[in-house]
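Handout, section 4.2: multi-component inputs.
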Amino acid sequence: MMDKVLEAKNITRYFEDPIRFKVLNDVSFSIERGQFVSIIGKSGSGKSTLLYVLSTMDTDYEGELWLDGLKTTGKSGNELARIRNEKIGFVFQFHYLLAEFNVLHNVMLPGIKLGKHSKQELEHKAMEHLKTLDVADQALKSPNQLSGGQKQRIAIARALINDPVIIMGDEPTGNLDKKNSDIVFDKFKELASAGKQTMMVVTHDAEFANRTDRIIEMEDGRILDTSTKIVV
Amino acid sequence: MNFRLILDISIKLLFARFKQTIVAGVGVTFGIAMFIALISFMTGLNDLLDGLILNRTPHVRLYNEIQASEIQPIEGSDDYYNAQNFVHSIKPKNSKKELRNVSAIIEALRADARVIDVAPKVSAPVFYNTGNIEIAGIVNGIEIASEEKLFHFSNYVIKGQISDLTNVSNSIFLGKGVAQKMMVDIGDVVQITGAKGQTSLLKVVGIVQLGLADLDNTISYADIRTTQTILGEGPSYITDLQVKLYDIESAPMVAKEFKYKFELDAIDIQTANAQFETGSSVRTIISYSVGVTLLIVAGFGIYNILNMLIYDKMDSIAILKATGFSGLDVKSIFILLSMIIGVAGGILGLLFGYVLSEVINHLPFETEALPTIKTFPVQFNPVYYIIGITFALITTFIAGWFPAKKAASIDPVIIIRGK
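Output:
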């Protein structure tokens, strides 16, 4: 029995606007440590909504959510913020780097917030991540000076800084061209295999999904298929 | 909470909108500076105007009021015991103006620990004779040393030396209006008629200006002996004892006590000049409300800028919250940002306020009524600076609080999904 990093139990989520509408319908599944999971589905299938529920940012759901053996359902906003800080790394479609800080500082921010390591240690760690992502030479630049692919790689470095139990991605390659998209995917793949990093990525890119360990396909708020592997 | 990180982010955000931040800060600076300058100037003016009267008024004045005898002789008659009396035949006697046993009273007062000093005075109603005309007036016989000590007599002297009042025999300081009417100046001799008809020739050794036209047109000052001579009275003739106390607030109580102790009439400064306190407090209220209004306007400026900043930095707030910053952290960031503007703007405001007060303090201000004042009066009181900065901090805190609350409640999901 592998240990479960993330477990969703009967998650149901309604949208109230404009009419009461069931976006997620009794969704249950779990992700084991070291898995690289992709969630696919058509527009409106509820895959993004599921991601935000799983990310603990959306708390307005029914059901239970367990993260790293800890029940997150019903915790306060401050506790959830702390959990996100420590255990979850995010990579969104948009990089969301802070223009006011340089690249290195952007990567370090969640680490400084966590306060587990000294500034020197964090700087060292951040530089290591930037090196593995081939953007170490950009460390002291402002995010505005970088290309889209570089920014996204820096966002990945930021997601890694606190050694999260899981990295969640929302269309992380959605804004990138083929070349950069491949680079980002390769990095993800590398992390999943080498560092035993658990990863969960929402995407509509079938090619991307096909190269992950496991695909969860969604339609109309339900999970269709939780096959561990689709062979290309 | 990691304060240094929060502070770091606040400062970075502040520089992201540097121009607007400066504008907001200048608003606070302007508000505080104006508040300080206004309140310093107003209280300076208050002190000046109050001083016009209050500095010249004893805290307690002991005198004999001319009044009818409370007991008419008929009431002493056994024949009319318990009867209603309509006969009031005994009129007040002039001699009652004189204070009895005055040297003993002065000694007792000077020994009292609450009393700064006593200045005896002889008030003599006189006529100033110029040609055929007689101008009614009053000569105040004063003991120049105690008068100077208690009432800063020399502040009102525009010509002459106060020591001449004792050094030159039969000398007088004329009120400015009196001197003008009589067309005399220092060195001239004037003729004065006392209430009982005796005339004296006095040498003018100085001119005084009290700043109140009514007084300047009637009052003159002479040495206490000279005045006693004008009245044809002996050296024990004193009509007023002017007492100054260490604690002005205790004057009404002390006046009451002296009244019974010395069996004299006594009036305290608060009763004699009630209207001046009213004027002062109204002016103070006006300056405070103007100052506070300026600061509130500055507060709205900060509120606006922060709102704009939050709208601008929605993405940054969202990612901060996504990566583990709590609502409280975000709130702290924006309140801190506002407080930085408040502190920086406020301190600059104190500085400019001081400079502005100094400038006002050096502006020429000459008026007939106030002979010794050459520039606008300004009071430099650290309390105003403390009030100013305190209020600036409170205003900026409140101005930061509401936008910060808004920022704290931003839902990162909506923003991240909206992209």
